[in-house]
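Our consortium's second objective concerns turning raw sequence data into structural hypotheses that experimental partners can test. To show how far this objective has progressed, the report includes one record in full. It was chosen at random from the queue rather than selected for favorable results. The single chain below, 142 residues long, was entered without modification.
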Amino acid sequence: MRGSCLCGGIQYEYHGEIIRFSLDHCSRCQKSTGSAFGAWIVAPRRGFRWITGEELVRRYAAPVRETPPGYSRTFCSVCGGPAPYVDESIVGLPAGTLDDNSALKPEMHVFVDRKAWWFEIKDVLPQFGSGPPQLKLDNTRG
């Protein structure tokens, strides 16, 4: 998979397994995307590589609301478009940044107890009121 930001200054690729592809309806994903949900592909860090523009990535760390962790938003410092979130063990790829026609499809809706009042979920994907179910995979926090 290859992806980029809106201006193309940030480019990345990912090769490897996927932990999950979820549609996140939490209020912070709504605010950070300006839409009903964020579409996130979560995967182990080891399959990720910046092609160009890593120096353009900025991170905004929103404060913790109730319990850790807080909410981090990564974006391009040129165009403001979403960028992958990368830490020591995982990567979060904003699905809308993918450049290729991946065969990946969303697997679940998460935080549906916080979904936008104006959005109705009409598909048959599993729905979780809170976060995604915990997965036990090496070097990930599922």
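The partners drew two points from this record. Residues 89 and 140 are 5 Å apart (CA to CA). The radius of gyration is 15 Å. Both points have been shared with the crystallography group to help prioritize constructs.
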